[in-house]
């Protein structure tokens, strides 16, 4: 049975409905598999920075510090020995360490489908008929996102949240104070378009809490990192065409 979801335009107005493939957007979650996929991706993206030199790589130390016998001191052959200050490091971190991990291709795809399905189930997926800006302007793009947040995202989140029952009746003054103390929800938006768009990328790159990528760069870490997911209709169609076989 196909899933149906509303489609909106850039002005946050209703633009019809769209059917989602249950093979991609209706998959039962497996937390262990999702965790494995996340750990694998993060390990493969890890950059090895820490690097220490061994006694062979430290500069100097070619001359024997003092004679082997007759000085009354311990024998030493090089000042670059690990037991000397400024010498090499024994068993220190090296930049040739390999943190690469592997995961089966189908397992990786299944984990991504689970995260996409969770976005649908929790009302954190928004589909737009198209997304485009006519100029390189952050202000214009931010206006589009603000409209979507007010008219689409906030109502969906409120509908998904369970009703909270309070035991005591609060006065209007107390309610106002409680509202002031509530933390402001930070923007957390991942936007995925079907292909690269220079104007969109330029307009979105300076907005905090907003990440815009094309379909070729879709990954499970970004899907989990951001609370709201915005997909264009063409992106959904291409995802379905690519994976629903």
Task: Please specify the SSE layout and strand pairing.
Layout lengths: L2 E6 L5 E7 L1 H4 L5 H14 L60 H17 L3 E4 L9 H23 L11 H10 L7 E5 L4 H7 L5 E5 L5 H6 L2 E5 H11 L2
Parallel strand pairs: 1-3, 3-6, 4-5, 4-6
Antiparallel strand pairs: 1-2
Helix pairs in contact: 4-6
Written account of the structure:
- By secondary structure, this protein is of the alpha/beta class.
- It has a domain at 1-28 and 104-159 and 186-245: 3-Layer(aba) Sandwich (Ribosomal Protein L4, Chain: A), CATH 3.40.1370.10.
- The chain is 38% helix and 13% strand.
- The chain is built from eight helices and six strands; from the N terminus they run E-E-H-H-H-E-H-H-E-H-E-H-E-H.
- Strands 2-1-3-6-4-5 form a six-stranded mixed beta sheet, sandwiched between helices.
